[in-house]
Amino acid sequence: EEAGRHARFQARIEAEERIEPNDWMPEAYRRTLVRQISQHAHSEIVGMLPEGNWITRAPSLKRKAALLAKVQDEAGHGLYLYAAAETLGVAREDLVDQLLDGRAKYSSIFNYPTLTWADIGAIGWLVDGAAIMNQIPLCRCSYGPYARAMIRICKEESFHQRQGYEIMLTLCRGTPEQKAMAQDALNRWWWPCLMMFGPPDSESQHSEQSARWKIKRFSNDELRQKFVDATVPQGHHLGLAFPDPELAYDAETGHWRFGAIDWEEFRQVLAGNGPCNRQRMRQRRDAHAAGAWVREAALAHAGKRARRASA
Ligand code: FAQ
């Protein structure tokens, strides 16, 4: 009976049917999705911090309005994703607790500092660019609520990416100091962005099973290569140099070859020892504590309305 259920489930996956919340699913499929979707939600929420750092210092009213809207979009993405995770039978409070007490992961990239305004350009161009490369295939993920959340999120991310590239373009067409600032941001963000795609395929413990379940449509290394191929010409158009002496176009394969990634740095960031891990967690905990009264007030208001409706 149990084996039959698993076989029927896998057949639905092969037939490209979407799995919906009330459908039977293997416990391991459910756990994998809760893990990935909650990590993704946490990344959106923690990802507000590096850019939030620049909202009060954006160089013009127009830049400030765009950045404010982008950071608000990220909050919205986090909320859609927590809602998608909740359809799998977990409570949002528990997921948030896991983040705040350090049990849950979020993307390594958000543990790097935003030192200058050019970092806001680099995040939009590179971090959102990497996020889109990874997320477009997730629009076809086998789990319906996650796939549908990704469609809207990807539309907003592509706008964010263009916003970031346009900041870079403005700086690169500006004074020598502005161009140098853009170059410095690229130098610092390039390698961490390549790490966003996760460990190499040979060390990616979840990839094989997630590919069989059609949660992942491309491997970590495949997406990393697609990102490099798409981004290098954009950087050259800006007149910038990539911080990789081994970066070279391979005419035979049509791909840009790149140098070795420092996986020890990646391991250190995941272990909590990146440049900003402690600061990010402290800021999240403080923000959560400072928002307690809002949650209490919202609950009291909802309770009052419910009592009034039933009276
Ligand atoms: N950072 O076996 P795999 C954004 C972990 S975009 C930290 O390959 P999997 C938008 C992985 O969780 C960023 N941990 O794992 C934005 C696993 O650990 P576990 C968020 C990482 O799941 C832009 C272990 O390593 N996007 O937020 C990282 O098959 C600008 C083994 O790895 C998503 O989350 C990493 N970089 O593949 C916001 C996309 N890489 O769970 C603000 C959805 C790997 O066993 C501003 N997620 N790990 O303890 C995915 O596509 C996948 O989860 C991967 C990893 C591809 C990230």
Average of the residue pLDDT scores: 97
- Identify every distinct bound molecule in the structure, by name, code or SMILES: Phenylacetyl coenzyme A
Strand coverage percent: under 5%
As laid out across the biggest beta sheet, the strand order is 1-2
Low-confidence stretches: none
User: Number of DSSP helices?
Assistant: 13
Give the N-to-C terminal Cα separation. Answer: 49 Å
Can you tell me about this structure?
The chain has 311 residues and is mainly alpha-helical. It contains 13 helices and two strands; from the N terminus they run ααααααααααββααα. β1 and β2 form a beta hairpin. The termini are far apart. The relative contact order is 0.11. The site of Phenylacetyl coenzyme A has 28 residues, from α2, α6 and α9.
The gist of it:
The protein is mainly alpha-helical and 311 residues long. It is 67% helix and 2% strand.
Index terms:
single chain; binds Phenylacetyl coenzyme A; two-stranded antiparallel sheet; mainly alpha; 2 strands; globular; 311 residues
Write the layout of secondary structure elements.
Elements lengths: L1 H13 L12 H20 L1 H5 L8 H26 L5 H9 L17 H18 L8 H29 L3 H20 L11 H6 L7 H19 L9 E3 L4 E3 L5 H11 L3 H14 L1 H19 L1
Antiparallel strand pairs: 1-2
Helix pairs in contact: 2-4, 4-7, 6-7, 6-8, 6-10
Bound molecules: Phenylacetyl coenzyme A.
